[in-house]
Design a protein that fits this description.
This protein is α/β, with parallel strands linked by helices. The chain has a single domain (59-265), classed as Rossmann fold, CATH 3.40.50. It is built from 9 helices and 11 strands. Strand 7, helix 7 and strand 8 (208-212) form a beta-alpha-beta unit. Helix 4 packs parallel to helix 5 (102-112), helix 6 packs parallel to helix 7 (196-204) and helix 7 (196-204) crosses helix 8 (221-228). The chain starts with a helix and ends with a strand. 38% of the residues are buried.
Amino acid sequence: MLREATRLGVYDYVTPLPESGLALAEWRLAVRRKLLAARPRKAAPEPTSVLRRKAVPLPPRGVVVIGGSTGGAPAVEAVLRDLPKDFPWAVVVAVHLPELFTDTLVERLRKVSALPVMAATAGSRLEAGRVLVAPGGRNLVVQPVAATPWVEWQTNFGNEAGPDVPSVDVLMHSVVRALGRHVLGVVLTGFGQDGTAGATFIRQQGGVVVAQDEATSAVFGMPKSVIQAGQADAVLPLNAIADFVVRHVQSTPVARFNRFSSLSYSMPAQ
């Protein structure tokens, strides 16, 4: 009997109503106490510090920009699959695709990545360990966020002229202008030369560029253009790129972006 009552969610009872007098008053108090005890309790509110941290996350230590075209979707999957869930840099992806295929690409990447993946919208904040995908058919740019306690960056949409949209060059240029040397460019398989001008700008400002090798590229155009321009710090097979990215990030001095002082650096803890 007790087991059946527990299964049904019954955990207390009341006695029959007394006729009058002191017993009736005590019965009413007992019923009130039991009703108050059975009332669902509200969860305790999170501390203000936790709410503030969720609303304004700390900016990433740097940004990885991954670009590609033909064959780029599975290539990006291969890179993201091997990035750890505690990856301390933001990741921004631009693959030449029509707008219709943006959601499909995002869902593909979510299935393989330990990092959260979402399509970038105007005002999306760059966060450590989060992947933002440039919507198809639109150029994506990164720019500083004003009126925050520290330096932050967000995405927006730029000029959509040109055959390669979203443009890897446009995205890389904007990231470098916003962050300086703490940028790692990854140029993957694809037709054309998009990414070469961006890779050049990354390296001019002290950043690093890695290009996919010919053997693992579906189309060697974009990586080949970067390599021939002398702008690839490393040329690697697809399955080795994520390891290169992780090792580079771990060995890069941590940038402290302070809104009220110049940029300072410290070495990451070993």
